[in-house]
Amino acid sequence: MFSFLLPNDLKYLEGKILRSLLKVLTFSFLGLILFIPSALADNTANRIAGKNRYDTAVQASKKGWSTASTAVIVGGGAYADAISAAPFAYQKNAPLLLTNANNLSSETKSRLKELKTKTVYIIGGTSTVSYTVENQIKSLGITVKRIVGKNRYDTAAKVAKSMPSTSKAIVANGFLYAEPIAIIPYAAKNGYPILFTNNSTLNSYTADALKSKGIKQTYVIGGNGSINSTLYKRLPSPIRIGGVNRYDISVNIAKKLTLNTSNTYVSNGYSYADSIAGAALAAKQNKAIILTNGENLSKEPRAFIGNKNIKNFSVVGGTSSVTSKVMTQLKNPAVGKTIFIDPGHGDQDPGAIGNGLQEKDVNLDIAKRLNSKLNSAGAIPVMSRSNDTFYSLEERVKKGANANVDLFISIHANSYTSSSQGTETYYDKTYQSANSQRLAELVQPRVVSAFGTRDRGVKTAGFYVIKYSKMPSVLIETAFITNSSDASKLKSVTLKDKAAKGINDAVSAYYR
């Protein structure tokens, strides 16, 4: 087709085509390299921590301020003062720092110098921040102002009166420190003060603050056990945000007020100093903070993370406050995802029988191991049965649907002739065909590797539980009970545990 071109023209054209092709291939290759890490990335979880509570508050301040003409300081154990101080600090564009009651903490002293602070507001009385500390701050050339009342209710009321005018306020129990922490970012951003009561009485300080500020509406934090219904009805146009526990309350606050979860702060629901410092930083960055158990990611935050598909976290507090296990759970892309585990057969329906094994027992053993691993990894596993009970196929599908699960995994063992052997994973094309296939293709090689069985591949079939489950669903035939070699592997505790780990790893890989 290029017969009309001269020889030199042909060489030029051939060279140009070759160079263009190489260019396309090079960019395609680079694009693939650049694409794969982000596509296969785990969640991110960064830790903000210091060697103690004072240093953790300092480290949190470094994430929000390089300089600050104004800072707010409270006693390291004066949690009520710190909670009421946080929205005030936000209004002053000031970091919230902590100190020892009797001596200015060295970390805080250094930070005040770094920030080039000119004015410090001390919130609280001399029992929490002494005159000695006040004088030590003044010796740095810093002007000190103190906001203090006769008690925590009065101090919070005086802080409220020092804030700009607003028609709304937060009301919480002044002794249940964990409950209002998660609302600090919302209160701070909107300029709402946080005021305190006890369970049943509206003290005069809070009542006066509500009246003098002209508060028309209140967000009441905590259930009836925190602020009872009689007191609740006395508050201006109250809206209650409660929960079954402190973790649930933090989640419900984020839900109710639609807080920004693009990078969610996480802290220990019992490490008040760390979590309040984290909430003050979350306010600065307009993010949500949720609370959890320091040893294990609590159920309520898990479900919230899974439902909101949150991928990025900032954990406030050291490993004594929030363990490395929680960090690992947060980094797992399957964190908070609800996974249905269906051990096939049960009770009067033993399934396949052979070589001293009953399928129902093998299925349940692997399923329990998978349940434990998924839970430890941060997912929310739900089992169709956890003992030798029989449920119909229809009941199993219904259980998965009612639990609103994200994935459905049915575990079985195979049977045929004594020479048949190997592992195979099935999916159905009725619902979620592509996603079910992808899950099957992640599960199959991992189970094969765990058991060392013959790879019989990924297949399609209309098995009831995967045909009628509307979420991505797979059915795993782990090995043949009727084959002596396969059966010996199904008897191995070690190999069954490896198979459960393989399925767990496949679930994480599915969400990468």
From TrEMBL:
- A Pfam family: Amidase_3
Q: Which Gene3D superfamilies does this UniProt record tie to the protein? A: 3.40.50.12090, Zn-dependent exopeptidases
**InterPro entries linked to this entry:** Bact_Sporulation_Assoc, Cell_wall-bd_2, MurNAc-LAA_cat
Q: Where is the MurNAc-LAA domain?
A: 397-508
What the entry lists under SMART domains is as follows: Ami_3
What PANTHER family does the database record attribute to this sequence? N-ACETYLMURAMOYL-L-ALANINE AMIDASE LYTC, N-ACETYLMURAMOYL-L-ALANINE AMIDASE-RELATED
UniProt-recorded name of the protein: N-acetylmuramoyl-L-alanine amidase LytC
Origin species: Bacillus paralicheniformis
